[in-house]
């Protein structure tokens, strides 16, 4: 049923044609969904013919249920004709892609290719091909593709806009066929209308007896495959066939039974070959015949397939064998006994010498009982899959190995290993189930400790109660006594993180730190620095800052350590120290393709950039973090990115965007509503209120961070929020509340070690002081080193100038107000610049209108691309860094140049002020 024989599918054909015909100008993707036999494959065949007639490159693959456990099997199907081009890719991409296909030496776990590097390599490979002709990827039965391949296709689908690259996938309507690309357009096929069904019957089965025709029409319910196949079955076997396709059965079952009714007439050797074919995960003819011979105990030749070919059940060429429809495979398997299916898997396992992964899967399927030897083979499968960047396949292998385990200790290790992979993949439901299973077994001290640490990774429970923290501490102490101080430190790090989320009291926080400091680990261990910063950000601030400075001077820390240290610095309010670590971490994580951790790191980098009003760093970090957090289903970090975006928008004076984005953060972030997130949201709302000149609303929002009865209460973030609270406090009651909060902070922090903490406290003391002592506090605040806090310094200048003007010291007021105005202007902080201008006008001095800066003309992603291009990177190099195609980068630059009024890359540095 193809071409002009697609009866009643005019609208659907037009949709598919639009994808194909538009390829020379733009890329697009489409997911075709519907019941078995509804016409998905026919639409794909039509698209393939149309694309090839237009001179396009067509790459095809078809999902097979037996292949779902073979990592990147579907991707290899799609791209195997292009492997000669892989050598043209950057070496790191070529190695990742060849490793994914098992065509390179296995990687060690430390250097295993990351999924996103494999996906980028695929994008680059296809991008090279599109330079010669548009490329159409066509995938049938996508629900049976292996998960790593589906994830790669989702990655591609989100990036095809600027490429002449099309993706057409077809899958069952009752399955999630494309989980990695939830926003891709869908085309759902419905049953044919009666007129189209009649036309199809006339074309494929003319001369049907009226009674049979009515029966077929009723049974088929508008399903094209049923309209074609049911008449054959009914004619072939009369009453028996009619029973097989009883109207009482679901349509899919009717079709399977229709195909099964033809199997009964086949010779036994043909049925055995079909059973092996249905059980096999490759379809190689020689392999199938060899296994069928082993199953039969005698040689089986290709001639045994002639009856099946004649019945329209299979198609065969000199290399491969395939079923005419996936339901034929289902019918073959459904018609076989359990013993026959187990024997077929056993025959394939016996045949597959030199293919250890496939052999292990078939051995596992061939036994109906635990077998430790097979479980160990699956352990090896999992290790090899991880080494190829296919963590999803490794997870499935360990889960199956768990079911086959005979040794209790092996079962525990496999459950915990599988749960760890589940967390890595973001599949928290599966991880939680695996951990629950492990919890029911007899566990040793270290196994119990690892179980608890993995449960921390679920982040579903943000319980900061005393019992939870006690459990983490005591389990860590037992793990240390059992000889694993690294595991103990990871547990204490988790406890410290919970302390930072919501303060459990100083005594318990000090206990976490004391336990960590007793461990035999170096004092500059990143996890130890993190633990001190998270549990005692005020009390141990001096120690944390000292160690951060030493590590900064010493260098040599790895990427994971840089991410940990950058986060630790933000917890201690050392944002000036955080930026260097976080930039180093982001660059390394991007290069390794570890985009899940990269999203977290970019959020911390963006929030750090807010404090220095570093638009060139912060805006691209926000945009990239939001994109990655959405792609990786990381709601907590998407909330963090939105908070940073809203803060930048407030600083810029784009209050409509700021309110919309913080509303999204607050509304969609409820599922990950840690007290720290809630506090950041209220601080951001306070900043928006100040930008809008609504001091009462700003005070109301920020005060929630100081109110112990409020869910947004967060004592450690009060050192950040105190500046906003002081600026928002205008009435006597508000000033009294703010002064009391300030006094509590001064008492608890002392002099404060983090520079930002000292600056914020000094700023608040100056703004909240009575007139008699204000001058002294302003002098003290100005004496602080604010070289890395230009926004805070400008706000202090504005506050001082306003105070002087109100005291009628107008001539003195003009100097700090001018400095504030120029500082705000250079920072691009429009609401505060306008406020400084108003104060200057009140002091008798006018101000010129501020023009927009060049970076302000670009979107955050355009700014990031422009910066990289200004640094001399090619489109291909930029694409490698940002996981975009070179063509997409070129399209962005095409829009960037006219915005900046330039015509070449060489002019970018001057326009962006990068000289």
TrEMBL record:
It comes from Streptomyces siderophoricus. This is AAA family ATPase. It comes from the Bacteria. The keyword ATP-binding applies. Residues 851-915 form the HTH luxR-type domain. Keywords: ATP-binding, Nucleotide-binding. InterPro entries: AAA_16 (IPR041664), P-loop_NTPase (IPR027417), Sig_transdc_resp-reg_C-effctor (IPR016032), TPR-like_helical_dom_sf (IPR011990), Tscrpt_reg_LuxR_C (IPR000792), WH-like_DNA-bd_sf (IPR036388). CDD domains: LuxR_C_like.
């Amino acid at each position: 049923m193809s071409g002009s024989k697609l009866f009643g599918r005019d609208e659907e054909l037009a949709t598919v044609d639009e994808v194909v015909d538009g390829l020379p100008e733009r890329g697009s993707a489409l997911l075709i969904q519907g019941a078995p036999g509804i016409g998905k494959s026919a639409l794909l065949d039509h698209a393939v013919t149309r694309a090839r007639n237009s001179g396009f490159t067509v790459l095809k693959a078809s999902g097979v249920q037996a292949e779902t456990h073979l990592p990147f099997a579907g991707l290899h199907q799609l791209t195997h004709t292009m492997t000669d081009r892989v050598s043209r890719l950057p070496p790191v991409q070529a190695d990742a892609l060849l490793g994914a296909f098992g065509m390179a030496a296995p990687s060690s776990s430390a250097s295993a290719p990351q999924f996103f590097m494999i996906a980028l390599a695929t994008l680059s490979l296809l991008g090279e091909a599109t330079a010669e002709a548009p490329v159409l990827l066509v995938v049938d039965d996508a629900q049976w593709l292996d998960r790593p391949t589906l994830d790669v296709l989702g990655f591609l689908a989100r990036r095809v806009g600027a490429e002449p690259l099309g993706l057409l996938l077809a899958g069952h309507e009752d399955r999630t066929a494309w989980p990695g690309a939830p926003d891709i357009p869908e085309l759902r096929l419905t049953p044919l209308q009666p007129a189209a069904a009649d036309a199809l019957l006339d074309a494929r089965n003319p001369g049907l007896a009226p009674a049979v025709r009515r029966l077929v029409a009723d049974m088929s319910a508008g399903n094209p495959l049923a309209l074609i196949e049911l008449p054959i079955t009914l004619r072939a076997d009369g009453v028996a066939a009619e029973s097989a396709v009883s109207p009482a059965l679901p349509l899919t079952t009717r079709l399977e039974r229709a195909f099964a009714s033809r199997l009964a007439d086949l010779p036994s050797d043909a049925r055995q070959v079909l059973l092996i074919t249905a059980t096999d995960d490759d379809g190689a003819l020689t392999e199938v015949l060899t296994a069928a011979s082993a199953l039969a105990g005698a040689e089986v030749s290709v001639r045994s397939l002639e009856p099946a070919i004649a019945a329209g059940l299979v198609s065969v060429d000199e290399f491969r064998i395939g079923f005419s429809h996936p339901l034929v495979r289902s019918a073959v398997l459904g018609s076989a006994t359990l013993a026959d299916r187990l024997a077929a898997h056993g025959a394939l396992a016996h045949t597959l010498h030199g293919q250890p992964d496939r052999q292990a899967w078939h051995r596992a399927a061939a036994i109906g009982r635990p077998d430790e030897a097979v479980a160990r083979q699956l352990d090896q499968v999992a290790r090899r899959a991880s080494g190829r960047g296919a963590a999803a396949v490794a997870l499935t292998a360990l889960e199956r190995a768990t079911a086959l385990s005979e040794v209790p200790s092996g079962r525990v290790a496999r459950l915990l290993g599988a749960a760890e992979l589940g967390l890595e993949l973001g599949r928290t439901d599966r991880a939680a189930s695996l951990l629950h299973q492990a919890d029911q077994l007899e566990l040793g001290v270290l196994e119990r400790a690892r179980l608890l640490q993995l449960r921390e990774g679920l982040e579903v429970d943000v319980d900061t109660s005393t019992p939870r923290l006690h459990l983490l501490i005591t389990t860590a102490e037992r793990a240390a006594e059992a000889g694993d101080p690294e595991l103990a430190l990871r547990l204490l790090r988790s406890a410290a993180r919970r302390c930072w989320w919501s303060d459990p009291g100083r005594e318990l926080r000090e206990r976490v730190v004391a336990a960590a400091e007793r461990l035999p680990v170096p004092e500059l261990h990143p996890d130890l620095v993190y633990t001190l910063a998270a549990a005692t950000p005020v009390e141990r601030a001096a120690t944390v800052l000292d160690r951060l400075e030493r590590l900064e001077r010493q260098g040599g820390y790895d990427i994971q350590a840089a991410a940990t240290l950058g986060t630790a610095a933000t917890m201690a309010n050392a944002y000036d120290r955080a930026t260097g670590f976080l930039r180093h971490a982001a660059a390394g994580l991007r290069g390794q393709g570890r985009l899940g951790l990269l999203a977290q790191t970019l959020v911390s980098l963006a929030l750090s950039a807010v404090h220095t009003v570093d638009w060139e760093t912060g805006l691209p970090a926000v945009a990239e973090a939001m994109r990655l957090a959405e792609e990786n289903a990381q709601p907590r970090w998407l909330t963090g990115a939105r908070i940073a975006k809203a803060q930048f928008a407030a600083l810029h004076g784009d209050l409509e965007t700021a309110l919309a984005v913080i509303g999204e953060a607050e509304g969609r972030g409820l599922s990950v509503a840690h007290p720290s997130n809630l506090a950041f949201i209220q601080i951001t709302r306070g900043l928006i209120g100040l930008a809008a000149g609504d001091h009462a609303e700003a005070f109301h929002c920020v005060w929630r961070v100081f109110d112990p009865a409020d869910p947004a209460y967060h004592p450690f973030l009060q050192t950040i929020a105190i500046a906003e609270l002081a600026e928002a406090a205008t009435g006597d009651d508000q000033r009294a509340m703010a002064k009391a909060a300030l006094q509590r902070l001064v008492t608890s922090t002392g002099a404060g070690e983090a520079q930002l903490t000292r600056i914020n406290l000094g700023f608040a003391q100056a703004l909240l002081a009575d007139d008699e002592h204000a001058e002294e506090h302003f002098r003290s605040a100005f004496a602080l080193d604010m070289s890395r806090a230009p926004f805070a310094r400008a706000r202090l200048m504005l506050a001082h100038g306003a105070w002087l003007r109100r005291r009628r010291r107008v001539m003195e007021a003009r100097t700090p107000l001018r400095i504030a105005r120029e500082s705000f202007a250079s920072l691009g902080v429009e609401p505060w610049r306008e406020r400084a201008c108003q104060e200057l006008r009140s002091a008798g001095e006018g101000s010129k209108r501020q023009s927009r800066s060049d970076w302000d003309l670009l979107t955050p992603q355009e700014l990031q691309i422009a910066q990289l291009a200004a640094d001399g990177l090619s489109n291909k190099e930029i694409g490698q860094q940002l996981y975009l195609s070179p063509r997409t980068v070129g399209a962005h630059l095409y829009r960037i140049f006219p915005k900046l009024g330039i015509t070449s890359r060489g002019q970018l540095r001057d326009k962006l002020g990068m000289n």
